[in-house]
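Hi support team,

I've been running sequence recovery on a batch of backbones for a student project. Most finish fine, but this one hangs at about 90% for roughly twenty minutes before it completes. I'm not sure whether the input is malformed or the queue is just slow. I've pasted the structure tokens below so you can try to reproduce it. Let me know if you need the job ID as well.

Thanks,
M.K.
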């Protein structure tokens, strides 16, 4: 099992969160009541290490839905820990592109 795909040597594949934590720090491999087998609420899992980022850059939680998926906004809405082709594990290379994927009105203002 190669959760991050690092053995594939494909660009952007990061195993074990840059080798700093084990899988079970974040995931319950044999079952969990959370999405993606997280040991706790996804935001709580990320903020247990990334406390300085928690809640400062974007509203998160059950009452804030990701318009792309309909799922609650969490750290994974913008960051892809195990397969991220861009710095800071972002889904898009330009922060503006990432923001505009949800905030369509921003695209019109910048043109």
């Amino acid at each position: 099992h190669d959760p991050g795909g690092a053995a594939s040597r494909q660009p952007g594949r990061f195993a074990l969160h840059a080798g700093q934590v084990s899988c079970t720090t974040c995931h319950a491999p044999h079952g969990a009541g959370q999405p993606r087998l997280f040991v706790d609420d996804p935001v709580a899992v990320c903020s247990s290490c990334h406390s300085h980022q928690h809640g400062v850059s974007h509203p998160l939680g059950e009452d804030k839905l990701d318009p792309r998926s309909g799922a609650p906004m969490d750290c994974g809405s913008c960051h892809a820990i195990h397969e991220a082709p861009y710095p800071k594990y972002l889904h898009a290379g330009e922060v503006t592109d990432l923001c505009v994927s949800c905030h369509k009105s921003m695209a019109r203002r910048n043109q």
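--
Follow-up from support: It reproduced on our side and the slowdown came from queue contention, not your input. The two ends are 45 Å apart (CA to CA). No action needed from you.
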